[in-house]
Amino acid sequence: MAGATSTFPASHRFETRSATRDHGLVRALLLALGLGFFALFLILPLVVVFAEALRKGWETYWAALTEPDALSAIRLTLLAAAIAVPLNLVFGVSAAWAIAKYQFRGKALLTTLIDLPFSVSPVIAGLIYVLVFGAQGWFGPLLEGYDVRIIFAVPGIVLATIFVTFPFIARELIPLMEAQGSEEEEAALVLGASGFQTFWRVTLPNIKWGLLYGVILCNARAMGEFGAVSVVSGHIRGMTNTMPLHVEILYNEYQFAAAFAVASLLALLALFTLAVKSFIEWKSAQKSDPGIRPEESLT
Amino acid sequence: MTATASRRVLPGFGLTLGFTILYLSLVVLIPLSAVFLKTATLSPEQIWNQISAPRAVASYRLTFGASLLAAMVNAVFGLILAWILVRYSFPGKKLVDALIDLPFALPTAVAGIALAAIYAKNGWIGQFLEPLGIRIAFTPAGILVALIFIGLPFVVRTVQPVLQDLDAEFEEAAASLGATRWQSVTRVVLPAILPALTTGFALAFARAVGEYGSVIFIAGNMPLVSEITPLIIITKLEQYDYAGATAIAAVMLLISFALLLVINLLQAWSARRGRREA
Amino acid sequence: MSIRVENIDKRFGTFTALNDVTLDFRTGELTALLGPSGCGKTTLLRIIAGLETADAGRILIAGEETSDKPVRERHVGFVFQHYALFRHMSVFENVAFGLRVKPRRERPGEAEIRRRVMELLDLVQLAWLAERMPAQLSGGQRQRIALARALAVEPQVLLLDEPFGALDAKVRKELRSWLRQLHETLHITSIFVTHDQEEALELADRVVVMNRGRIEQAGPPQAVYEHPANAFVHGFLGASNILRGTIRDGLFHAEGASLPARNIHQSGGEAVAYLRPHELAIARRPDPAGIPAEIRRILAFGALARIELITLAGRVPLEVELPRHDLAGLALNPGETVHLVPQGVNLFPSAEAGTLPKPVLAKAG
Question: CB-based contact (8 Å) between C12 and chain B?
Fold first, then answer.
């Protein structure tokens, strides 16, 4: 969901020109307001997570992470992400190829529909699968006949995860591939490359950073999703609990240190995600075309 | 001219578009349609009774009211943050810039318990507010705090690039024409970033309306007082009241779609404005 | 290899890009497709390459129908306007690409690829850049690498889309003569698209002037320049002075002068004369074929001097070009009245003048 904003090195140009330089007091006030708000709303919660997690010492922390239910929650979270992310990756690349490289009717509608899961409340994302696969749902009785469980079981969790992370990779790639145009692909085809060779050798290397960016964001959301998964999970300890659901259970049982311990793992994941994201932004800002070099004479 | 040319010479159109539509239908469109199809099996009276129940109506008021307020707070502070990130240099700026996206990356449940720990009456900040008679956790104010947290990056990240691309020459022109600094900011800069700011506001609002994870830990969830609409859906589901849950979900979905439409229009406005001022 | 384009039609929505275009390109010739933007020249080039499909008509390369052949099997070399170098590959890998993607049984070995690539880089005189990335090259260098890459697959025909469009004036001139030399060496049937008439006239064996999806005229540069088929071609191929007048008794009457009305199949009525600025002689004495005009400005820089005048009769602005030392001999002054005697007049029916893109006085391009 984050805009792919690159680094902003150029505050300099505003600070050195008299017409765009703010009065010292204004500057101090805005900095104080902005950074104060930032510290209160973003930094403090982050600090609290780690502080509360370690409040009862490392031993309790470690024990909370290694007890069987926590481990099984970690395993399930990894499993759900390991299925959802690759599927959405294939989808994202395919959708971006179709949308960015061709003109066709209904393209704008398709792009909007791909974004749809972002505007649906996570709770509703869970609900729709209950309506389709639940005991009273469309396929409920049929599935029950074959003894297949989707809702209140792992498949439901995976489905809900796929839904909420559905647009991430596609929406990173579509604008990127649109901006890059099709000339390089056309050049590859004229030179005799097949469709697959063109994609693999020309398109993919050009979109790799955007792709990684999308994967990272998709993964963070997949591992952290709470609302949608909560609806379809059934909260069976050691069976259908993901990490965020495990945090909820521990918290509701007043095992605060344990809840924050598991939460701190998720917070680390978030920090890791942001670090990779910043790295990619830095990398792509660096790699961006430095423009045509000055002409050197022939010969 | 060739830009609009049929680019079908590139292979893979049928395959990729076909897969895209199939996957979109299976994962998103067909399951979503279940909400409306299920709602359609209820009589109009049943639907009306569900969606106009006092608890439901109180939850709409709370959800939309808190979301609106949170989006307004975010519009103000998001603008300030975007401004200082673009216009000023200060130590640690890169770190601040990177951490603005924290609410996108931090699981909502983690944010929820952290905020509850901060604002509970014995919490990090709550303990100082309690003697003053101010309670945040387990009241509608707590909901507001959670919604501010999750909505902040939307405003910063939509305003920041526009502010970045806004050439200093506009303000220099205004200054050369005799405008004060205040006039050149309010009459030149703000109108230029208004579409982006409105878009960011709408995105933050839309996100807040559907939010669940970060809110329930800090809301207290008291019927008629601090119970948000998504929670009503869950409660009804847990009571196996599928019809009730679905009817309310349908209302929320329709509102989400309307918001999506508004946001698309705002973004088109934003893009147009960007081109004109480029 | 010869190329034949037969009855090609192409529309984009309601816009007709090509309207029943038929053309022959002879083996070994370098042909320029010349016209204003939107005239369909790039579309035609892309249809020949297979990057675009025609709505109707056929393409024959070496007598063989290729309309349905996918682009990768056509063996054409295509140089894109913005070069389309693969930005993540070195110069060497860019040139080697066409060899590396060949089916396994046709693919040359690594040593052979290296030899062929270096040979091509030598040909474009850029072997020393082999390990650079495209972003590290100048525009002219990118252009030559794009050409080397296109030649690597030994194409039967070479197609170049605005090959010098993105370059600055000095490099453009240099590359132009270099490309001509290269063509003399390789003799591959080549077509290039341009909107610059000077480029087309200087470089090509044959010029095809296009306008609004149709071919206005095709022929050797000299012939097209000296005997433009219509007002559009005249206007597009260089600066023109335009005079409106009437034809009577075998003479064209305009602006107080009577000019011989040759080369027009019209015995009376309105007509338009197109006069090149260097084909107007300046005389002090009145002349029946001289147009009385007042000198407005004299611009004398470089080898050619430009004189701006305005006719006495109809206040029509005119421009004359003459060698600078001729100007010195005439000792002209602004405000003076002189008589302009046309050395060559191209007369066209007045209806045709309406198809001109713009009343050209300044040099196009």
Answer: yes
Write the burial class of residue B54 (CB in 10 Å: 0-12 exposed, 13-18 middle, 19+ buried): exposed
Check CB contact under 8 Å for B1 and C53. no
Q: Any CB–CB contact under 8 A between C151 and chain A?
A: no
- The reply to whether A293 touches chain C by the CB within 8 Å rule is yes
- Over 90: is that where the pLDDT of A218 sits? yes
Question: Per the confidence metrics, is the pTM higher than 0.90?
Answer: no
**Which residue, among C159, A124, C179, has the nearest Cα to B34 in the 3D structure?**
A124
The domain ranges of chain B are 1-39, 44-277
Q: What is the DSSP letter of A199?
A: I
What φ, ψ does residue C319 adopt, rounded to 5°?
A: -135, 140
Interface of A with C in 203-242 (CB under 8 A): 205-206
List pLDDT tens digits, range A93-102. 999 999 999 9
Give the DSSP H/E element, type plus range, for residue B155.
helix B140-165
Q: How far is B137 from chain A (nearest CA, A)?
A: 14
For chain B, say whether C53 makes contact (Cβ under 8 Å). Answer: yes
Kind and range of the H or E run holding C305: strand C304-311
Q: Which of B4, B9, B13 to mutate to test the interface with C (most CBs of C within 10 A)?
A: B9
pLDDT of residue A288: 58
Per CB-CB distance under 8 Å, the chain A contacts of C108 are none
> Which residues does C87 contact at the CB level (< 8 Å), separation at least 6?
A184, A206, A289, C133, C134, C135
Contact: C43, B6; criterion CB under 8 Å: no
- What letters, b where the CB count within 10 A reaches 16 and e where it falls short, cover B11-49? bbbeebbebbbebbeebbeebbebbeebbeebeeeebee
Chain C residue nearest residue A292, CA to CA:
C138
C297, burial (CB in 10 Å: exposed 0-12, middle 13-18, buried 19+): exposed
* CA–CA separation, A151 and A231 (whole Å): 9
Give the side-chain half-sphere CA count within 13 A for B60: 13
Q: Could B259 and A119 be called an inter-chain contact, meaning their C-beta atoms sit closer than 8 Å? A: yes
Of the options 1.10.3720.10, 3.10.450.50, 2.60.120.1440, 1.20.120.430, the CATH number for the domain spanning B44-277: 1.10.3720.10
- Are the C-beta atoms of A273 and A190 separated by less than 8 Å? no
> Contact, B126 vs A44, CB < 8 A?
no
- Rounded to the nearest angstrom, the gap between the alpha carbon of residue A40 and the centroid of all alpha carbons in its chain is 24
Comparing alpha-carbon positions, the chain C residue that sits nearest to B4 is C12
The CB density around residue A51, as the number of other CB atoms within 10 Å, is 15
User: Is A207 buried (19+), middle (13-18) or exposed (0-12) by CB count in 10 A?
Assistant: buried
CA distances for C41 relative to A264, C94, C157, angstroms? 63, 27, 17
**In the A/C pair of chains, how many CB contacts fall below 8 A?**
95
Average pLDDT of B129-145?
90
Does the structure show a pLDDT above 60 at C115?
yes
Instruction: Please report the ipTM that was assigned to this predicted complex.
Output: 0.89
pLDDT tens profile A78-94: 999 999 999 999 999 99
Does the beta carbon of A190 lie under 8 angstroms from any beta carbon of chain C?
yes
**Range in B170-174, B256-260, C89-93, C228-232 the model is least confident about:** B170-174
Cβ contact (<8 Å) for C17 and B8? no
Question: Which residue, among C51, C161, C211, would best test binding to B if mutated, counting the most B CBs under 10 Å from its CB?
Answer: C51
Give residues with Cβ within 8 angstroms of C329, minimum separation 6: none
Is the pLDDT at B200 greater than 50, yes or no?
yes
CB of B4 within 8 Å of a chain C CB? The answer is yes
* Cα→Cα distances C258→B92, C227, C244, C264, C336, Å: 82, 21, 12, 15, 22
From CA A201, how far away is CA A148, in angstroms rounded?
42
B155 burial via Cβ count (<10 Å: 0-12, 13-18, 19+): buried
